[in-house]
Design brief:
This protein is mostly beta strands. It contains no helices and eleven strands. It has strands spanning about 5, 10, 20-25, 35-40, 45-50, 55-60, 65-70, 75-80, 90-100, 105, 110-115. The chain is globular, with a radius of gyration of 14 Å. The mean pLDDT is about 95.
Length: about 120
């Protein structure tokens, strides 16, 4: 059974930084794309950033130049370094990984990120 576990959320001041981690386990196959999504209160879940197994990345326009996604394939872990945080970055951040023979999507439980002074 594939498990996806996020960590690293919390409270940060505007202009501050946080680093999220997401560890995946339980797949008999290599993990495919891994990514971060977020959902603010009253809004739909949106893509933040994704990374392929070979390191190609995709970012939402709202985070380009501020957030960096990376992954460690040996640890089946994806990271999201968030710098220059803004109040509008406040949301629950979810990790999504593609796993298994059919690259089914698996989601983590989410981690809260709050940016406030």
């Amino acid at each position: 059974q594939v498990q996806v576990v996020e960590s690293g959320g919390g409270l940060a001041q505007p202009g501050g930084s946080l680093r999220l981690s997401c560890a995946a386990s339980g797949s008999d196959y290599s993990f495919g794309d891994m990514g971060w999504y977020r959902q603010a209160p009253g809004k739909q879940r949106e893509l933040v950033a994704t990374i392929t197994s070979t390191g190609s990345t995709l970012y939402a326009d709202s985070v380009k130049g501020r957030f960096t996604i990376s992954r460690d394939n040996a640890k089946n872990t994806v990271y999201l370094q968030m710098n220059s945080l803004k109040a509008e970055d406040t949301a629950v951040y979810y990790c999504k990984v593609l796993a298994g023979y059919w690259y089914r999507a698996y989601w983590g439980q989410g981690t809260q990120v709050t940016v406030s002074s």
